[in-house]
Amino acid sequence: MNETLIVLTYVAAIAMGLTDFFGHRISGLASEYRDKILSLSSGLLISLLFLILIPDLVSTNFSSILFLFMLIGFVIMHLAEKYIYRHVENKQKVLEDLKMIHIFGFGFDNFMVGFIIAIVFMTDPIVMLELSIPLMLQMLSSSISLDSIDIRLNDRISKILLSILPVIGASVGLILEFEQIYANYILSFALGVLFYMVIRDVIPQGGSGSPPLFLIGTLVTIGFWILRFFI
User: Fold this and answer.
1) Rounded Cα gap, residues 133 and 16, in angstroms
2) Alpha-carbon gap, residue 206 to 135, rounded angstroms
3) What is the span of the domain harbouring residue 19?
């Protein structure tokens, strides 16, 4: 891998980290609009998963095993949450443990964004340019969603760590240089984790939330999806 691609990989990873950090900053200013933010974010994330992230993954290496790894990621998150609810009696301890699961889930996805950047740049830089805006949307909506889900996430160290995980993920991707097929399996697992987080924690439940904002988030992603056909 030449030096130019390495530099571009880190530039992209740093941009993703700054996007995540910016998301944490603006989420604090908009805490009173929690359900509206979650509605917009969930519309973005769900449509990104269905229209861009999963199709792009499958198009690089179609295999039913990829969906197995997605399922494993989804199931592990569900079982971890249920374990905490059933085996931790102290309510405050439950909240703290669930907070850590939220941080782990979104943190793992942040790491995988950087990892994806490194892997894709090594295989096809043009595809990375196409994915840059969708990935930035994912980072922004994920960071806002995490703060909106868990308003107790006031630990500055946690926020900074979440923001540098894309750079760490990119470094791991560059160092290990996984073959595309193995990288896809890891990415599939991460998408399963993200899918669970969106369904379980990001989409407002019951009568809360704003359907118009959810639709707007979906339409924004559809717009970028259509735009990719003309690039």
Assistant:
1) 10
2) 29
3) 3-230
Q: How many domains does the chain have?
A: 1
DSSP states of 93-118: HHHHHHHHHHHHHHHHHHHHHHHHHH
Judged by DSSP in three states, 80 sits in helix
Take residue 31 and report the two structure tokens written for it.
């805490």
Q: Fill in the DSSP letter of residue 33.
A: G
CA 132 remoteness from chain centre: 13
Angle at 194 between CA 149 and CA 39, to 5 degrees: 45
- DSSP string computed for 150-217: -TT---HHHHHHHHHHHHHHHHHHHHH---HHHHHHHHHHHHHHHHHHIIIIISPPTT-S-HHHHHHH
pLDDT per residue, tens digit, the chain (231 aa), is 577 888 888 998 998 888 888 877 766 655 567 677 778 878 888 888 898 888 887 877 777 888 999 999 899 988 887 877 776 666 666 666 666 776 777 787 788 788 878 877 776 676 666 667 767 766 777 777 666 555 455 566 777 888 899 999 899 888 876 676 777 888 788 888 878 878 877 787 778 788 999 999 899 889 988 887 886
Q: Which two tokens stand for residue 208?
A: 């809360």
